[in-house]
Amino acid sequence: MTFASWLALAIAIVVAAETVRWLRHRALAHEHWRRFFRHPTAAWGCGILTFLMIIAICAPLVAPLDPVVQPDPVRLQNHPPSLTFLMGTDVFSRDVWSRFAYGARISLGIGVIGAVVAVALGSLVGAVAGYYRRWVDGMLMRLVDIGLALPRIFILLMAVALWDRLPFEWLAFVIGLTSWFGTSRLVRAEVLGLRERDFVVAARALGARSSRVIFGHVLPNAAAPIIVSAALSVGNVLLLEASLSFLGIGVAPPRPSWGNMIADGAVSLYTAPWTTLFAGLAISLVVMSLNAVADGLRDALDPREERS
Amino acid sequence: MMAWLLRRLMASVAIIFAVVTFVFILIHLAPGEPCLAGGDTFTDPDICRLLVRQFGLDQPILVQYWRYLVQLVQGNLGYSFALHRPVGDAILDTVPFTLQLAGAALVLDFTLGLGLGIYQALRANRLPDVVLGNVTLFVYSLPTFWLALILLLLFGEKLRLFPVGGASDPILCPTVDSLYCLVDRIWHLLLPAVTLGLVGAAGTARFQRAAMLEIAQQDFVRTARAKGLPEPRVVLRHQLRNALLSFITRFGLTFPFLLTGAVLIETIFALPGMGRLTVDAILQRDYAVVTAAALIASAMVVTGSLIADILLALADPRIRVHEDAALDVVTA
Questions:
Q1: Distance separating alpha carbons of residues A119 and A183, to the nearest angstrom
Q2: Which of A151, A186, A189 sits opposite B298 (nearest CB)?
Q3: From B133, which residue of chain A is nearest by alpha-carbon distance?
Q4: CA distance A130 to B10
Q5: Is A95 helix (H, G, I), strand (E, B) or coil?
Q6: Distance from CA of A201 to the nearest CA of B (A)
């Protein structure tokens, strides 16, 4: 660790903490957002997510070394964590902290891209099925049944393994393509209720086209479950990417992702546990934060019921 | 009820058929040959061509698809190129391991998860609930394969309490033929099953807590209290019974989770189960095994949700009136 990277790390922690404080301060003005911060874990979740996002964006600043460079494969192999190597080094003498920071970029990037694909597709299918009902609904929902019956990991394994080394943007896209089924059911259920409401009937009576009614009136009112399921999707996609990378067919090796860092470290698990520990902990923390934030959002965005 | 069941059954068969078709298309669209895969330069191209002809891989895809369907109806899952044996045999060898793993994990998942969820709901928002809530949230968020590695490091390597891999002791107990070997089997199964079961249990506990609290707000619970029923009776007869209804649907949703987990857990613990068979088959482009594994996995998932639906229909008389309601249960 150089002085500059220590400084950058300290700044990242302060900025994350200040962001949460600022958000909480702003939240006091709104009843909804007060409810969000009533969950202590939600505030912590926000902080952890902000911190890791800063790390991901500023990876070149916080990481002292190139993530793929092998400084000294003989003497620095599996070096335990120290002040020079914050998280130790791995089998190839690479700095785990630098890989961690750059891995955050890839892992979080895949999580966000995959979730956007999944939620966009799920909302669209759910809205169309719920709005048009009849045979459109029947066909789309049978498709969803099939999708839910396919164990996702089998399909992903096949798609990824058979197509040899997808670039990671495509990996994210493919994971997103297999992750929208749950969201579409959720949105459909919501739309089924909304389509009978007076403002939708009024919009239709005024001659608005179906696309306008769906995108302008129905979907915005179904935003709450969509946002919550988006938060959960990011975690799911992240976990899937990690699983695939762990099995050796996700993000291609020299490039760090938290999943393939765990896989790299698994080889020397007993002699150098730190190589697997931190990446796994990061995945758990992100998924946990997202779950906590989703819990908070569910309360904040749902005006109907006071949950305990 | 019978008509509903019949329709549901036919839908299940249709779903499995669609899955098989989809997987078949996906495999045949993908680049790469079953022979000469992965830059193999050792195999004689002539022999390769002969093999491709022998297995009918030079036929048009529709012909191959039709032949595969006919085979399937006859109960023949095809022949594995990589294992040099019928796929049915290979899968039959591995399924028991996966079922044992999934079954043991399921038991832990439901007993621990239900217990924790109910306990938390009864102590809602007090210290035990808050602590357990954070613990379950954390465990629920753990990647199963990472938890497996950590448990392996702790209990297998540091404390040396459990074996680090394999389904049984390869020298003393190649087959289960004595009490000692049965214990050995269970001993080997424990760590993988606990890994898988713990993560599931955390999810179940969160689910069950929410279900219990949702029921607790309903009018009939308040009525039960108001008319002076003793508290245990309110909780057990009114709250728990109704909360268990939504738990049944969770039962159906647990199957995909267990199968996904089994793939990773079997790889880490070197268990000769279906998940590992599939991963190996995919890497070797062993078409027949991959399709069969997807078929069996989706059949398990569909059967799981079918059982859940039937149980739900038996337990909840309202569903029998609205036939489609069971199909529309929103996935969590």
A1: 6
A2: A151
A3: A41
A4: 24
A5: strand
A6: 24
Closest to A165 (Cα-Cα) out of B289, B129, B151, B30:
B30
User: Integer distance in angstroms from the first to the last C-alpha of chain B?
Assistant: 26
Please tell me the distance in Å from A39's CA to the nearest CA on chain B: 11
Whole-Å CA distances, B311 to B84, B250, B304, B307, B315: 41, 12, 11, 6, 6
Q: How far apart are CA B214 and CA A300, in angstroms?
A: 17
Taking the C-alpha atoms of residue B110 and residue B113, their distance in angstroms, rounded to an integer, is 5
Q: What is the three-class DSSP state of B218?
A: coil
- Among A18-22, A278-282, B172-176, whose mean pLDDT is lowest? B172-176
Mean pLDDT by 10 residues, chain B (332 residues): 80 84 78 58 72 74 83 80 82 86 89 89 84 89 89 83 75 75 83 89 88 84 86 83 80 76 85 84 77 82 82 73 44 32
Kindly give, in sequence order, each residue whose CB lies less than 8 Å from that of residue A6, ignoring residues fewer than 6 positions away.
none
Cα separation, A182 vs A241, whole angstroms:
18
Substitution target in A49, A137, A157 with the highest count of B β-carbons within 10 Å is: A157
Closest CA to A298 of A235, A226, A233, A215: A226
pLDDT tens digit sequence for A37-80: 777 788 888 888 888 888 888 888 877 777 777 777 777 777 77
CA B126 to chain centre: 34
Side-chain-side CA neighbours of residue A83 (13 Å): 2
Please tell me the distance from the alpha carbon of residue A5 to that of residue B113, in angstroms, as a whole number.
43
Task: Measure the CA–CA gap between B305 and B9, rounded to whole angstroms.
Answer: 11
> Do the beta carbons of residue B313 and residue B320 sit within 8 Å?
yes
Closest Cα to residue A236, out of A167, A294, A185?
A294
In order of A160, B58, B141, B165, B206, the CA distances from B109 in angstroms are 30, 47, 15, 22, 12
Q: What are phi and psi of A95, to 5 degrees?
A: -75, 115
